[in-house]
Amino acid sequence: MLQQFHATSAPALKLVKINADENLSLARLYQLKSIPALFLFVQGELVYRQDLLGDRHHIQASLAELVNCLGLVAR
């Protein structure tokens, strides 16, 4: 699903999928409470976080809203 969204998202957006089970140190660092979770970093700084994303449609809507709020133009 992330690959499909990325194919139609803004060119400046980089999506990264992290497996929490394989990256426990990151899960602890960001105090991961639910999966999936959405984190937005700008120049290495965490600027947005959304936990309890829900189903595929909710995740896609959240990503689209972020792209819109950032003023990024969709491809």
The neighbouring-strand order within the major sheet is 1-2
Oligomer: single chain
**Mean residue pLDDT:** 78
What general outline do the C-alpha atoms trace? globular
Give the low-pLDDT segments.
Answer: none
Residues in β-strands, percent: 5-15%
Return Rg in Å: 13 Å
| Through-space gap between termini | 17 Å
Q: Major β-sheet, in short?
A: 2 strands, antiparallel
Structural class: alpha+beta
Question: How helical, in percent, are the residues?
Answer: 25-40%
Tally of separate helices: 3
H/E element string? Answer: HHEEH
Number of strands: 2
Task: Please explain how this structure is put together.
This protein has 75 residues and is an alpha+beta fold. It has three helices and two strands. A two-stranded antiparallel ribbon has the order 1-2. A hairpin with a 2-residue loop joins β1 and β2 (45-50). The longest helix has 14 residues, at 56-69. The two termini are 17 Å apart. The mean pLDDT is 78.
Summarize the structure.
The protein is of the alpha+beta class and 75 residues long. The chain is built from three helices and two strands, in the order ααββα.
Topology:
Elements: H1 2-8, H2 24-29, E1 38-42, E2 45-50, H3 56-69
Antiparallel strand pairs: 1-2
Any key phrases for this structure?
36% helix; 2 strands; alpha+beta
